[in-house]
Design brief:
Layout (H helix, E strand, L loop, with lengths): L12 H28 L14 H16 L10 H17 L2 E9 L2 E9 L8 E7 L9 H20 L7 E7 L7 H9 L2 H5 L1 E7 L10 E2 L4 H13 L5 E2 L9 H5 L5 E5 L8 H7 L23 H19 L1
Helix pairs in contact: 1-7, 2-3, 2-4, 3-4, 4-10, 7-10
Bound molecules: zinc ion (ZN).
The site of zinc ion has 6 residues, from loops.
């Protein structure tokens, strides 16, 4: 996640929140009606359940990203060799799984940056559900929680799509962004490169930036009530009451899509903000400490991960991808 001014809560914040909650209930009612309708129609098969994403595979990706950083001066930052090595690592796995991959180049700060785009060749060709994570770290360290975690969770979800030979009714596209830490540069470049029709074909963009924070919170982007409910209902079924993700507002790649009018969503386990007592009571962890005290620091390495949070939020990615694309 990129640095930015924390948004102070608007004085009418609780009113906005009440409106969102009401909209969310309405969206849920519609979803339930829609599901009942689908069951009544024998021609419409119910959506397949997403598989469990093995956390061991996500952890292995994080170890590999750590090794890539160590072999390349200690980081995976924009314009540094560790970034391109990270991109090649992800691309090789996607190519082997049958994805059509594209590397998109751009320039930021006088250095070449790269986005990796991967299209799943099966399923619908119209509306697209896109899921992304920034792959660059800051120069201070290996960037394993920020954002090896989101990158690996999205990668393992993409590989699970391939393993399931999924034929969703919507088109699935995945992305790993460059130069997010320079101010969302890669994702902005991608959105700017789209034609009007391509932009209109984007049904939803899901973003994952920090999903293994060591003093984890469980946050859901509330930009769109219907997409948010896909996450909140899933977490609730696991006994976890999520909160609105405010720390990510305008500070990760979904902002590039949202400002172009695309519906966005995602989940998040917290960055430099401090866990409250109420949050520690319901989620565990330590009140009065940041969700990630190694945020943007040299200690953001493989030890800086809460495996339970990583496991949970990786499964949440798969659930949302399956549900929103079916
Ligand atoms: Zn960051």
């Amino acid at each position: 996640m990129t640095r930015g001014h924390r948004h102070s809560r608007a004085p009418h914040g609780h009113l906005r929140r009440a409106a969102l909650a009401a909209a969310s209930s309405a969206a849920l009612a519609l979803t339930l009606l829609g599901a009942a309708g689908a069951q009544a129609d024998p021609a419409t098969a119910p959506a397949a359940e997403a598989p469990d994403i093995p956390v061991a595979a996500v952890q292995q990706d994080l170890k590999d990203l750590q090794s890539i950083a160590e072999a390349n001066g200690g980081n995976r930052a924009h314009g540094r060799p560790g970034y391109r090595a990270s991109l090649d690592y992800v691309k090789e796995k996607l190519d082997a799984a049958g994805y059509r991959t594209t590397i998109q180049e751009f320039t930021s700060g006088g250095k070449t940056g790269y986005n990796l785009i991967a299209d799943w060749p099966q399923g619908g060709t119209g509306e697209t559900v896109m899921t992304g994570a920034h792959l660059d770290s800051v120069t201070a360290g290996a960037g394993i929680n920020d954002n090896g975690s989101g990158s690996a969770g999205v990668l393992e979800t993409a590989l699970a799509v391939a393993a399931a030979d999924l034929e969703p009714s919507k088109h699935l596209r995945f992305a790993w962004w460059g130069a997010e830490e320079q101010g969302l540069v890669g994702s902005r470049h991608y959105v700017d490169s789209l034609g009007e029709d391509e932009l209109a074909a984007l049904d939803t963009y899901l973003n994952f930036d920090m999903i293994g924070s060591p003093n984890a919170g469980h946050f859901v982007y509330e930009d769109d009530p219907a997409v948010a409910s896909v996450f909140t209902e899933w977490f609730r079924a696991k006994g976890i009451e999520t909160e609105a993700s405010e720390e990510t507002d305008g500070r990760s790649d979904h902002a590039s899509f949202k400002s172009a009018g695309v519906t966005v969503g995602g989940s998040f386990t917290g960055a430099g903000a401090v866990k409250t007592q109420a949050q520690a009571d319901k989620w565990g962890g330590t009140a009065g400490e940041p969700y990630d005290s190694c945020y943007h620091s040299a200690c953001d390495d493989t030890a800086n991960i809460d495996e339970k949070a990583l496991d949970l939020h990786s499964d949440a990615i798969a659930h949302a991808v399956w549900q929103l694309s079916s």
